[in-house]
Design a protein that fits this description.
By secondary structure, the chain is mostly helical. It has nine helices and no strands.
Amino acid sequence: MPRKPITPDNAFLRLATLCARGEQAEGDLRKKLGDWGIAPSDANAIIARLKQERYLDNERYARAYCRDKLRFNGWGRSKIAYMLKGKGIEQDLIDAALAEIDEEQYAAILNEALEAKAHTLTGKDPQQARAALLRFAASRGFEPALFFPAVSRLTTASDED
C-alpha cells in the first residue's frame, strides 16, 4: 500500500523535532525532504524556515560533529573534515570547527588510540607492528606529521622492553 504523501507543513514539523533532538546537517535534511517527495521549492522554503527559527545551523553542526567524532570515535582532523565535506558543509565552517580542537587533547587521543592498538599487536614482528600502527593512525584521519613521531616513540619504547 503506498504511503500517504507528507505535506510541507508536516515535513517542517518532523524536521524541527529532529533538529531539536540533536544537530543536523543541511544536506542530510535536504535528502530526507527529497525522500519524502517534497518539491524542491517547498524544500528550500522549509530549510530557510528551519534556519530562520535557529533549528538548523551548519556552523553549530560542524562544531558539534567535530567535537563528538574526536571525543567518542577518536577520529583525526583529516577524517572529520572529509566526512563533513561529504555532508555538504562549507570549507570555511569545517576549518573553523577544526581550529577549535585543543592540541593537547588531540595528541592525547592519538596516543591513547595508538597504545590500545599496540597492545593488540604483541608478539608481532616489530616492522609489521610499526606498519600496522601507521596504517591505523592514518585510517583514523590523523596527520602524518603527528602520528609518525608518536608511532616511533611507541615502537622504540616497546623495543626496549
